[in-house]
């Protein structure tokens, strides 16, 4: 009787084990099938979803060799899909912000066009940091249409000075009218530009010129966009402020009609134009500047509340 009871118990135990094993196997198979099913669904859904529209990388102006054909290098319509990222900026208390603005104003108030420079060397790293700051300027379509040529060679500075002085001499004697001569007479402007060679560095600011196929006038001719002119003005303003902040001085010099000759001396590509010249250095100990007066705040501001 006992043996028969044990035999029945063994049968029940064996059946239970088989049933449990069957359930485990069924569960594993179901999980595997579920994973395959999800993968197929995800694959089908990815096939039906349109791929994410990514902004095409902005074409960059590259150095070209003299004589290369200027071609369309930018499409302004590409910039409207630029990816946005969070903007993080140090938040200042009103008092601190006011103090900073006052200190910045006091520094800029001392800025003048200096044409007498100290022979004190200017570290290259200092110039690089200033140009990096200028490179942070906003520009139309983020084209950044500028190139800063830092000339430290005495021979090259002398060549650029000769070009500028030759154009100045020719301009004052031939190309400009009597009104221009009278306008500059009070400031004793002459054609000589010795500070171009006396300054340790001469920054030649180049404006990159591009032509876009959709900028066509009524005569079916390509026209250069004027936005680069505005962008260059902004970056030069930041550059001059950075120079002032670092204790350096400069004197804005326009090449007049000598820009093309300067471009060729610097071996810059034809898609660049000389925008202006900035001799850079520490001011001489006995430097003098014209006694000019600025307009008051009341003369340059209008508030609309």
TrEMBL record:
The keyword Flavoprotein applies. One of its GO terms (cellular component) is plasma membrane. It comes from the Eukaryota. GO terms for biological process: tyrosine metabolic process. One of its GO terms (molecular function) is iodotyrosine deiodinase activity. The chain crosses the membrane at residues 16-36. SUPFAM superfamilies: FMN-dependent nitroreductase-like. Signal peptide: none annotated. Belongs to the nitroreductase family. This is Nitroreductase domain-containing protein. It comes from Elaeophora elaphi. The lineage of its organism: Eukaryota, Metazoa, Ecdysozoa, Nematoda, Chromadorea.
């Amino acid at each position: 009787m006992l043996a028969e009871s044990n035999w029945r118990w063994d049968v029940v135990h064996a059946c239970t084990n088989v049933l449990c094993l069957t359930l485990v196997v069924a569960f594993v198979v179901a999980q595997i099938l579920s994973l395959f099913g999800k993968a197929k669904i995800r694959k089908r859904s990815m096939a039906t979803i349109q791929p994410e529209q990514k902004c095409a990388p902005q074409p960059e102006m590259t150095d070209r060799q003299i004589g290369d054909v200027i071609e369309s290098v930018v499409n302004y319509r590409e910039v409207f899909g630029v990816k946005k990222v969070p903007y993080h900026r140090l938040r200042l208390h009103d008092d601190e912000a006011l103090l900073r603005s006052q200190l910045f104003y006091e520094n800029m108030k001392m800025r003048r066009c200096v044409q007498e420079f100290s022979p004190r060397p200017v570290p290259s790293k200092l110039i690089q940091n200033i140009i990096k700051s200028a490179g942070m300027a906003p520009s139309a379509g983020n084209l950044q249409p500028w190139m800063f040529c830092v000339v430290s060679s005495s021979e090259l500075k002398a060549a650029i000075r000769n070009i500028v002085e030759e154009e100045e001499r020719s301009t004052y004697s031939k190309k400009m009218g009597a009104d221009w001569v009278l306008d500059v007479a009070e400031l004793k402007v002459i054609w000589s530009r010795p500070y171009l060679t006396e300054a340790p560095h001469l920054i030649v600011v180049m404006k990159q010129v591009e032509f876009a196929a959709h900028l066509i006038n009524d005569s079916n001719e390509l026209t250069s966009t004027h936005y680069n002119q505005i962008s260059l003005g902004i970056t030069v303003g930041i550059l001059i402020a950075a120079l002032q902040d670092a204790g350096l001085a400069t004197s804005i010099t326009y090449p007049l009609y000598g820009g093309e000759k300067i471009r060729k001396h610097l071996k810059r590509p034809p898609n660049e134009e000389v925008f202006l010249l900035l001799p850079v250095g520490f001011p001489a100990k006995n430097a003098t500047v014209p006694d000019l007066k600025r307009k008051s705040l009341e003369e340059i501001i209008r508030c609309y509340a």
